[in-house]
Prior knowledge:
The structure is a single chain. By secondary structure, the protein is mainly alpha-helical. Helix content is about 55%, strand content about 5%. Strands 1-2 form a two-stranded antiparallel ribbon. Helix 3 packs antiparallel against helix 4. The two termini are about 25 Å apart.
Amino acid sequence: MFGKEISMIPKVFCTLAEATAVILTEQRYDGITPHLTASEAIDMDRIASIASKVLERPIRRIVVSDDEYRDHLMSRGLPEAMVGMLTGMFQASRQGDFSQTNPVLENLIGRSSVSFTDFLKDSISQ
């Protein structure tokens, strides 16, 4: 359940950990907060399309309002603080806050980051 016009960048935690290790041990980053993003931003329609191909079955995107999303989370028993945080992420992603790309991550680790397609394939094979 994702809102209209959400874009997000898939991040693989082990890749982020690798970049963090480089920053801490090799001091190859000069700045306060590095923008560790994938090289490609993909929206939820594309994620559904990729998932459909990888899983070989239809995956459809369902757009819900902020209130529907909040109510769904509350009905699942999530604590109010978590519901607020997830709803805030839902709103931020819809506004494009997670759609920025930057080459810093790839420059730090010396290779391309993992694509969403590869991440999904690896996740389902485990």
